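ok here's Radical SAM core domain-containing protein, seq below lol
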Amino acid sequence: MFIPKSGPVRSVLLVATNVVPQNDQHMIMPTQLDYLAAQLRGRGIHVECLDLSLIGTPFPLPRQEQAQDTFQHLFAQRAMVLSRTVAEGEFDLVGLSFRNLDPSLIQEPCAEQPIREYYLSDLLELSAAVRQANEDVFLVLGGPAYSLFPETLLRRARADYGIVGAGEAALAGLVESINQDRPPLDRIISRSFDFSSAVFSRGNIDLPAYHKLGVTASLQTKRGCAHQCNYCNYPALEGRHYQLRPATVVVDEMEALMRTGFEDFYFLDAVFNSPLEQAKSILREIIRRQLDVRLEGMLSPHQLDEEFLDLAEGAGFFKPLTSLGRRRLADAPPEPSLWRTLGYRPFSDGSAFVGNKYYSAQTMKDFSVRKKSKRNLILGIDAGDDQMLQGLGKSFDQAAISRAAQLIRARGIPLTFDLLLGGPGTTLEGVKNTLNLALEAGADTVNVALGIRVYPRTGLAAMTQGSLWHMEQDLLPVTAFQSPVPFWEIVELLEDFEDLVTLDYNFR
Ligand code: SF4
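and the structure came out like this:
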């Protein structure tokens, strides 16, 4: 039986445990932790943040043979910093936010299976570090990856409580209950939070450090996703109904971030242009205030129309990011005219050696983006064949993709398609149709992720229960949907389109 500890909780340490390669475009700031800290502080709770993402993550990522040592060293270093912070501070509650289950960013040449399971061992090491530093502190887990396996991770990390879903109201409620001498008997807590009316005072994490690293600032205009793509856990985590924030509030937040020096912004929404009217209202507000910003966000062909593209272009989508320029100063490949002389060895994921220096796929892509006057519009279409789109549960069809591509290309905006192959409904014919559609649509690049991970509480999980897994915890180690077409056959077909396609193996 669970016997709750008693309080009080006067001081809280929130820890971002994200592992991201620094100085890479994929590096993201822990915005949700910033939001959470803002809400707790607003309720009079003393909060400090420790951002482990900023501690020495290697970039570029090491090659396979060195990866194990590098990650073990990194995780030991992170655990030591956390342990010291907890031991030296007078915290009553430590909240560990666990964002990613697997390192999806690790591509060739180090995408082997064991490395993909490192994040879990990191979480357990961090939890043990908290316990060692202070056995009495309340240890609370949260974040998207935690929310997928709450019971298992709570038990394995020996945590006191776990928060599933949005943390703002749940963590504040937990602290208040403990302080009123009524600690909850249920160790897994879920409490809805009204995101639509929330105003966040940003800067609880080290924003200047992110700005210096050239990281794009991120913010969220809504939570939730009403679509039903069957591999995706987003609706289970954020809800199937939208919580929309008013445009004035979102753009106020953007202006506050601009005062820290940011000019590039990434919208963290599941899909920025859905619902379409919300996206348009945000863009109109940015235009009305005449902000000189560059914008990024996940875009879908679903309902993408002429007016949206007008507004998006006017507000700052498609302009090259200034942060890319900052990163370029630190780490740019030499001019292409020199590559042949220096020696150029490309990998299938888009990364390359130029001379004896390795450049990640993202760096190579950024480099080509800088040379264009407009940044690519990336459409996450997953597939371009009706049977495959239906198999994935997408809410648009092949015709919608062609229509959207036509509107985009008519403006001279370079176009990238993101594909996800190997899900239900995948056929060789469908892959061929998809690539032909990309050619007909005039796509400049096609990013292909091969293989789909099965997450709990998704359509794919329901489809594979009994065959691939029995208990939810079976899905904790990386578990791939069995592609109807062997990967090697898909790869052979992709090779015919090698000038167009960048391939990333999710699974082998
Ligand atoms: S993949 Fe589909 S369900 Fe998931 S966030 Fe995107 S649109 Fe929503």
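fwiw The radius of gyration is 23 Å. kinda neat tbh
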